[in-house]
Write a structure and sequence with these properties.
4-stranded mixed sheet; 6-stranded antiparallel sheet; Jelly Rolls; alpha+beta; binds 2-oxoglutaric acid
Length: 293
């Protein structure tokens, strides 16, 4: 598997950063998110997994080792763990970190905002056939095709554990018709065999950015027992239109507890809560074909 090009050397050179994103459809940046905060979120999520009996008894919490049969996003056994993750202020705060915001302003060349819906992934080993299949985010996100997706490991993710892979240059094929597939999101698309999949090991603090039309997928987890924890969120420039579903929490279609009223009640007064209601120029339209994230 070929590795991502690291783009840290282009930080501070916005036009080169924009050109690389335009050319390759992704940017891979090391050491962007604050390590201590990422590790804090990772620890909390692993505690929820441990309380649910998903971790191997007696193992070190931060190793994230599981001997539990795989549980897929959306299954009933997953709801209560995920509701705790979604109620964590520190989890939602990570996307609002200054450094990320500044990079996005360089890319959009205007004020930017993070879409409120923020997604955590708890991907089990021994479940590769139900991993996230190749897809484009635009199917789920809608709105402007310029919206940028961000994917971040919650803790180190060695190559053997997987993470996300990117089909370099795939954004240039336009929107690809989806067809049903197993795994998160429930859809897949055609993969141009002339294009190359890229991957990397991920370290705490790394950030992978990609375009809404860039095809990406989960990389297989080759370990028998390591959970893969990650988060993904999206940014738009203020002149870009987003869809209303992305103002709501992930899995809001299930109703409570996946509503802001329930999730942010402990941190309703923090700047992380409902920041989008304070943005004067938000352009929102209905999502014509809402898919799950
Ligand atoms: O982490 C995953 O398995 C899926 C992530 C994804 O599809 C995304 O970030 O858009």
């Amino acid at each position: 598997m070929r590795h991502f090009i690291e783009s840290n050397d282009l930080l501070g050179q916005p036009s080169l950063l924009r050109k690389r994103l335009r050319d390759d459809g992704y940017l891979f940046l090391r050491n962007i998110l604050p390590t201590a905060e990422v590790l804090h979120v990772q620890r909390r999520i692993l505690e929820y997994c441990q309380d649910a009996g998903w971790l191997r008894p007696g193992s070190d919490l931060m190793e994230g080792l599981t001997d539990h049969p795989p549980i897929l996003e959306g299954e009933p056994a997953w709801h209560s763990v995920y509701a705790q993750v979604q109620a964590l202020e520190a989890f939602h705060r990570l996307k609002l970190y200054d450094t990320v915001h500044r990079i996005m302003e360089d890319l959009f060349q205007e004020p930017v905002f993070a879409l409120p819906m923020t997604i955590a992934r708890i991907a089990f080993p021994r479940d590769n056939e139900r991993g996230t299949q190749p897809h484009q985010d635009w199917l789920y996100v809608g709105g402007s095709t310029e919206i940028i997706s961000c994917w971040a490991p919650l803790g180190d993710i060695p190559e053997a554990v997987g993470g996300l892979r990117i089909l370099k240059g795939s954004h240039k094929a336009g929107f690809l018709a989806p067809r049903p597939a197993p795994g998160p999101g429930g859809n897949t698309v055609w993969v141009d065999p002339s294009l190359e999949w890229l991957q990397s090991d991920y370290r705490t603090g790394d950030l992978l950015l990609f375009k809404s039309l860039t095809v990406h997928a989960a990389a297989d987890n080759h370990t028998p027992d390591v959970l893969r924890l990650s988060m993904d969120f999206r940014y738009a420039g203020e002149s870009h239109t987003i869809t209303d579903a992305w103002l709501k929490p992930h899995f809001h279609w299930l109703g409570d507890p996946f509503s802001w009223e329930v999730l942010d009640k402990e941190w309703r007064d923090s700047p992380t809560a409902r920041y989008w209601e304070r943005l004067p120029n938000l352009k929102v339209k209905p999502h014509e074909r809402f898919g799950r994230g």
